[in-house]
Amino acid sequence: xxxxxxxxxxxxxxxxxxxxxxxxxxxxxxxxxxxxxxxxxxxxxxxxxxxxxxxxxxxxxxxxxxxxxxxxxxxxxxxxxxxxxxxxxxxxxxxxxxxxxxxxxxxxxxxxxxxxxxxxxxxxxxxxxxxxxxxxxxxxxxxxxxxxxxxxxxxxxxxxxxxxxxxxxxxxxxxxxxxxxxxxxxxxxxxxxxxxxxxxxxxxxxxxxxxxxxxxxxxxxxxxxxxxxxxxxxxxxxxxxxxxxxxxxxxxxxxxxxxxxxxxxxxxxxxxxxxxxxxxxxxxxxxxxxxxxxxxxxxxxxxxxxxxxxxxxxxxxxxxxxxxxxxxxxxxxxxxxxxxxxxxxxxx
Length: 348
Prior knowledge:
Elements: E1 3-9, E2 13-14, E3 17-18, E4 24-29, E5 38-41, E6 49-51, E7 57-62, E8 69-75, E9 81-88, E10 94-99, E11 105-110, E12 115-121, E13 127-135, E14 151-156, E15 163-167, E16 172-178, E17 184-186, E18 192-193, E19 199-204, E20 210-215, E21 220-227, E22 230-238, E23 249-255, E24 261-267, E25 271-278, E26 283-291, E27 297-302, E28 308-313, E29 318-325, E30 330-338, E31 342-347
């Protein structure tokens, strides 16, 4: 089956990236190869995208300073994107968006501002009122990277519907209860402190009993286990191969639908770490470290069919494709496609 892949990018040179794309990109993926991408929408630094269930709406951050934006698009049956409007992200350098799976709400987080905003969504997919705004305060233990709050990723707890906020600057993963009117209430008892590890992204296992957090600052990955109404950290292990040297900052983490395999991208080593996950023991075991085939892998995505993994190699301007065997926990290179400054990969 051929599917549309939407690609978030950087469009300008920033301290951490030489962006030179033209906006949100779109390409066709036939299961092995990616077509030449085309510009689907011209947005400044659309580094993260969220696609509505059914694909009828698409949302992009505009990662800019001093104030970022969140942009909404209607997506037609042929894949064309029509802008529906934009709103302030609530702070500089928005880094992430997530849609609530069962409520018409979009949550946005800013890396530069350390803020979280919740927006109501209209029937046509456009952005309505801001129903919640939270400003994180404080700093983490590593003042070279954690001198202020830096919200890096958001997700929705599949069991409780809570909004889960990964703040790299504070070194914390926070759970917020979401009220009926779209407000956020911090659950301080449910906060997981990871400190100088630098939590960046979190992925839930489909069983809802476990979550996996990748840490940017110490190249580690943690297993969190649900105990009653909160999560506890039960394991931390490295994302790097034995003997790996030099600077490395992990970026993405994903869990296969079966829960058997966890994948982590390593920027610096330029690898994908492949872990076996034992649900009963709540433990990860590193089984392989595979060269990603490009430089600075940001996002990883498992295809809807579950048999391919795609990696966005930001600094080598390409998306690499791997055949993925979840049962054997293996990755085999299949193809690579030229894509300018790819950051986020999302199937529409």
